Every structure is written in C-alpha cells, then in structure tokens.
From TrEMBL:
Job of this protein: Catalyzes the reduction of 1-pyrroline-5-carboxylate (PCA) to L-proline.
InterPro entries for the chain: 6-PGluconate_DH-like_C_sf, NAD(P)-bd_dom_sf, P5C_Rdtase_cat_N, P5CR-like_CS, P5CR_dimer, Pyrroline-COOH_reductase
Residue ranges constituting the Pyrroline-5-carboxylate reductase dimerisation domain according to the UniProt record: 165-266
EC number: 1.5.1.2
Species of origin: Bilophila wadsworthia (strain 3_1_6)
Stated name of the protein: Pyrroline-5-carboxylate reductase
GO cellular component assignments: cytoplasm
Length: 266
C-alpha cells in the first residue's frame, strides 16, 4: 500500500492506544513511509505497537509537540483534560482528530481554543483488520486540503463516509455499535451449532465463514439482502421454515428496536 501524497512527511500520533486508538496506529503501521507516535497512560499497551515501528512518547505535551496529526483515542470524559494538557504544544497547522463518541465539533473547538484544526471521526472495530467504516463529520470551516488529507488517512484503514452533524449519532448507533449486533448474531448461531453436535471451535469457524461469504455476496453490485434471502428460500423448503420462525418471533423488529435504543442513548 502506497502512502498518499497528502500524508508524505506527516508525523501522526495517538493519545490513548487502547482497542480503537491502537487499531488505528497498528493499521497505519502497515503503510510504508509513515512516521508514527503513541502515548498511553499504561506504557505496556504500546509494546505491540512499538514492535511494528511506532515510537512511544512519555507524555502528552511531548506527543502534541511532535505530531502534525494527533488522534485522541481516550474515553469521552477524558478528552477535555487531555486537550487541556496538550494545548500549549499545539501548533496552528496541527490537526486534532477525536474518535470519542458524543464529543462534538463545538466541544473540540472550545477545548483547543481555536489554536488548531479539529476533526470529528466515528470509527468501528473492524478497523483492527483494515475493514473499518469511518464516519467523518463535514465541516465547511476546515480547509479543503486538510479535509482531503483526513479522508486519505482513514481510507488507509477501510472505507469513509462524510456526514452532517445531524446524522452522526445515527451512524454511531448503526455502524459504530454495529459490530456488537453482528457478533451477538454470530454467537447465537454458534450456540445452535453446538446444540446440534458441532464442537464449539467447529461451530465458530463455520459461522465465521458463513458471515464472510454472505457479506461478500451482499457487497456485489446490484445485490440486495432481501433478494439474496429469497434465493436461499426454496418453496416448502428448510430455509423458509426457519425464516418464517424468525418473522413470527419478530426478530427483524427487535433488531430495528435495538438500533433505535442505541440511537436514543447517544
């Protein structure tokens, strides 16, 4: 994978290298030519990233001073404090990217006191394997070249979509939380497999391949889940009996309600 021209010679850092921040740095470590830095309150969390070429920085002011692009990967309630600590080291050309749920662009602008650019991004955990979906909030105040650079950056880790602020919480409820829905579904199918006599390992492997293959079918141009489902359901067959049970027990409605519950909470 080639380094986009917009990121050439850019120094990219992350404060908070847990699951999501670590996934972003780890994914970027696979791209040649990037200069990567990390800070984490528990330094041991950085060891796997350092093995990939990420440079550990011992404090927040140090990483803020060193980096052109600074990802804030801490929990939402910590973002204000982290940015207050980083503030004296931020430069006008620095781009601060928050991946914290619920922290708005207005919050970020207030936290950096207009000292630098800010961007709001919502990722999901498949970024760990280079298949993330990143919602990036549109911001007319951000220079076009900076916004293009951010799209290039997250395009290295999966797919991106630009969203207005009013759709950001909906994206979080559907896509940010979405892996949990899929894994919940997969775990239930695996339990059914164990009930029918497969070992747990066999059931998990079968279900994982089932979901991978089905997703590839759904991604084909012109595909639609409803049509693909119909193609599996032969008249008076085994599959339609199972699908009828799902419909009688309102599984579709429960899935919709689960996403709306997340949306109401966001």
């Amino acid at each position: 994978m080639d380094t986009p021209a917009s990121l050439t010679s850019k120094r990219i850092g992350c404060i908070g290298c847990g699951n999501m921040g670590g996934a972003i740095l780890g994914g970027l470590a696979e791209v040649p030519g990037l200069e990567l830095y990390g800070y984490n309150r528990t330094p041991q969390r950085l060891e796997p990233l350092c093995a990939k070429g990420v440079t550990a920085v011992p404090d927040i002011p140090g990483i803020a001073a060193r980096c052109d692009i600074l990802v804030i990967g801490v929990k939402p309630y910590l973002v204000g404090g982290v940015l207050a600590e980083a503030l004296p080291s931020l430069k006008p050309e620095t781009v601060v990217i928050s991946i914290a749920a619920g922290v708005t662009l207005h919050d970020l602008r207030d936290a950096v006191q207009g000292r630098c650019h800010v961007v709001r991004v919502m990722p999901n955990t498949p970024a760990l394997v280079g298949a993330g979906v990143f919602g990036i909030q549109e911001d007319p105040a951000l220079p076009k070249d900076v916004f293009a650079m951010i799209l290039d950056l997250f395009g290295l880790l999966g797919s991106t979509i630009v969203l207005p602020e009013k759709k950001f919480n909906a994206f979080m409820a559907l896509v940010g939380c979405g892996p949990a829905y899929v894994f919940h579904f997969m775990d239930a199918l695996a339990e059914a497999g164990v009930t029918m006599g497969f070992t747990r390992q066999e059931a998990l492997e079968l279900v994982t391949q089932l979901v991978l293959g089905s997703a590839k079918l759904a991604a084909l141009p012109g595909s639609h889940p409803a049509i693909l489902r119909e193609q599996v359901c032969s008249p008076a067959g085994v599959t339609i009996a199972a699908v009828n049970h799902l419909d009688r027990t309102a599984v579709r409605g429960h899935l919709i309600d689960a996403v709306l519950a997340a949306y109401a909470k966001s």
